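QA checklist item 7 of 12: single-chain prediction sanity check.
[x] sequence parsed
[x] length recorded as 395
[x] structure emitted
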Amino acid sequence: MTPGLSVNLQHLETSATIAVSQEAKRRRAAGEDVIDLGAGEPDFATPAIPADAGLKAIREGKTKYPANEGILELRSAAATHLSLLAGGRPVNADHIVVSNGSKQSLFNACFTVFGPGDVVAIPAPAWVSYPQIVHLARARPVLIPGAPEWGLKVSVRELERMLPAATGLILNSPCNPTGSVYTHGELKALATWAKARHIWVIADEIYRRIHYGTGPAPSFLDLPDEFLERVIVIYGVSKAYAMTGWRIGLALAPAAVAKAMAALQSHTTTGANHPAQYAAAAALSDPRVEEDVARMVAEFRRRRDLVVARFRQAVPGVEFVEPLGAFYFFFRVDSFGGISGTEFCTRLVAEKGVALVPGAAFGDDRWVRLSYAAATADIERALDRIVSFAKKLGD
């Protein structure tokens, strides 16, 4: 830790995924031919309807301080949207807080319900920011390794065996970095375990719409109310709606928690970007945008199939998680002569010009994450280089 900095930052590390993207951009600026498959960001343009709604809001002067909890138009649109995704269950707009991206929604949630002495279980591999955010809330994150034969997901058995004294759980489904999706039955089992132990659950469902099964991915909102008393659902428009730069995240929480999160936000960022909220409201409420989402998800599926088929054909025997959602492909590299994910990625970008994210960023450096949120032609070129590099390591 740098001398003179607050103890609040003693565990803080730079985001590895952002660092990979910045390194790829640096190499490109230096004239190198680098294909960036490290970014967790859709390569599609924001659909026209929300984009136009944002521009309209600017022209109409909707550029002032918004309400701390978010404009009613967006909270109402989000409540209706989440209700429809969950088969019509009632969702109260007053329990929704709008923030500057789902990352701030996660931070607000953790800072509101966790504190010193709390122990938060995080199934691993896990998105890089979860442990960092828990540390910033002065709680203690504990990574619980998932089972390889189960898509690196975690069951109640692992949680009870490794962390019987947990006071919190952060669950991401569909999962970054693995693409795994928890089934309805698995979610219900985890919710039953959490309810019996009075554990707060933060369910990060930002990738819910990018699901390769039927309909949206299973959600905690598909469960009866009795399981949701200590559940905070994180949602947003960044991934499925290709609106990462608009910075709009949502948290659906019990009434008292939502009120506290809005109060916390009033002393940090105040409300989220005002015109962007109108854009997000249009994204969540206009049925024509759902056609755009369906097209993007169909393209992600085609790319997923391309990556999976190429690995099976060209590097048989390499362990990977078959993605059922999100837009990531997580494969294991230590079979190549015991190489770590960090060394694999470092050498790959230097020797072949492909940027991937090492598994160390997610808690297991035997693995590597590839994002197929990129043009198909770039994915195909990158796969040629990855396969060539992997075969060279295996010789």
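[x] summary fact logged: The radius of gyration is 21 Å.
[ ] second reviewer sign-off
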